[in-house]
Write a structure and sequence with these properties.
single chain, alpha/beta, Nucleotidyltransferase, domain 5, 2 domains, seven-stranded mixed sheet, six-stranded mixed sheet, 14 helices
Length: 448
């Protein structure tokens, strides 16, 4: 490296991933000495070149770890296995630390296998096929431009720089535009696809891909092949294929009972402090005359208790008097006060439907199992579940299909079960009503 002031940074999510056999530091020890670099491990992993250029390696395991790079500058940043990092970790480094005075154009590189239901999937979507599953090889390497508003983290894509600059000029001309957009600059991005066969060195090794492909599961092979819709086998409870997709909610005349189940949380989402807290979710189920159960609506929020109360009251008001509001409450004495408080909240809602409460005396899987069994066509011999098309479908079903796993099989991040908890709570009421109407054991033809 001939630029004396060049500073590079290579990152993994966990420190042990840097130093393990075949990891980034292992590769640096093989490669960089050929360029005359001195490798040091303290105070951090770093390759120091004769010119003065340096290449540093680090990790960002927790959200707070990124603050350790406050004030740092990297001309070049590399992320190994990008989906392992949270979106806020990526943008912190790529958006604020990618700078320098060496003369090297600030650049960010990242590697990844296909990772469905992650923020990276959403980011690379313009380079995938119409279904968002497989790479569009004609788009591989194509440069697109984007603008990211630092205020709301939204990314808007453009075909060229002129379009991006035109968009910024239009937004900046708006007197009501947030100040953050005035700091945004258009950036370019390219996604380059690769196949396993491109790595000839590893394929030629009996211990490499060639010797291990046959031992992989179908899910692992599809991910390696680039299928961004490949998901791990269901944990045995929920599968989005259980449900017919409806473009419109069921007609009121076809509904015999409705219940909205609530699973509450009380933490506000903050990019720097807690970017991925639990959700408050309210899931509405409609029981139809033909025995079918429809997931017709989901409301979600990550905020403080006061805002959660507002959401629940507004939702109950919109649901009206014919929708039962069903809540979980904690076991023990705290549940008594919790129930009294919730009853008081709902009483303030004009036209609120019945309110019911259940103490969580069993584990979450026990409550979810009857619900999942009802929707499973192999159990009921009929497709009794349907879902109304909505923006929440993908996120909620991705959560349900991984339940009851605690960690994401790709990213290793903690998983949420808030949708499943709310769905299970609503189903308790629906199941009770089915028993009264003699529909609990209903079996029939698939509703078309």
């Amino acid at each position: 490296m001939a630029l004396p002031l060049f500073r590079g940074g290579g990152f993994r999510r966990q420190a042990k991933q840097l130093t393990q056999s075949g990891g980034l530091w292992d590769l640096a020890q093989r490669w960089y000495p050929h360029a005359g670099a001195e490798l040091v491990a303290s105070p951090h992993l770093e390759a120091r070149f004769p010119s003065g250029a340096r290449m540093q390696y680090g990790h960002i395991n927790h959200e707070s770890d990124k603050e350790g790079y406050d004030g740092a500058s990297f001309d070049w940043i590399g992320f190994d296995e990008l989906p392992h990092f949270t979106e806020t970790m990526f943008w912190y480094l790529a958006g604020s630390r990618n700078r320098g005075v060496s003369g090297f154009r600030p650049t960010v590189r990242a590697t990844t296998m296909a990772a469905p239901d992650t923020w990276v999937h959403k980011f690379v979507r313009p380079w995938l096929d119409a279904d968002g599953g497989w790479p569009d090889w004609a788009q591989s390497g194509r440069i697109r431009w984007f603008v990211r508003n630092p205020f709301d983290d939204q990314v808007v894509w453009f075909n060229d720089r002129a379009q991006a600059e035109g968009y910024l000029a239009m937004v900046r001309a708006d007197a009501h535009a947030d100040d953050a957009i005035h700091q945004a600059e258009p950036k370019s991005c390219a996604v380059i696809f690769a196949k396993t066969s491109d790595n000839q060195i590893m394929l030629q090794s009996a211990k490499g891909y060639g010797g291990s492909l046959g031992m992989m599961t179908r899910y692992e092979r599809e991910r390696l092949a680039g299928n961004w819709n490949a998901r791990p086998p269901s944990a045995g409870m929920f599968d989005r294929r259980f449900f017919r997709v409806l473009d419109e909610p069921p007609a009121e005349r076809d509904i015999v009972f409705s219940a909205r189940g609530w699973d509450r949380a009380s933490t506000k989402q903050t990019p720097d402090g807690n970017p991925d807290p639990d959700w408050t979710r309210g899931v509405r189920l409609d029981l139809l005359r033909n025995g079918q159960v429809v997931i017709s609506d989901v409301v979600s929020l990550r905020d403080r208790p006061g805002q959660v109360t507002v959401l629940m009251q507004k939702t109950a008001e919109l649901d009206g008097p014919h929708v039962t509001q069903a809540c979980w409450i904690n076991p023990g004495d705290s549940g008594v006060y919790e129930e009294e408080d919730l009853r008081a909240q709902f009483k303030r809602v004009k036209g609120c439907g019945p309110t019911v409460f259940t103490r969580q005396s069993a584990n979450k899987e026990a409550y979810a199992r009857p619900c999942a069994a009802f929707f499973d066509p192999d159990v009921k011999h009929a497709q009794l579940g349907a879902v109304v098309r909505g923006t929440w479908n993908g996120e909620c079903f991705a959560e349900a299909e991984l339940f009851p796993l605690k960690k994401h099989p790709v990213t290793g991040d903690d998983l949420h079960d808030d949708f499943v908890d709310a769905l299970s709570r609503a189903f308790i009421e629906v199941q009770a009503r089915m028993s009264k109407r003699g529909l609990a054991g209903w079996q029939g033809v698939t509703v078309r």
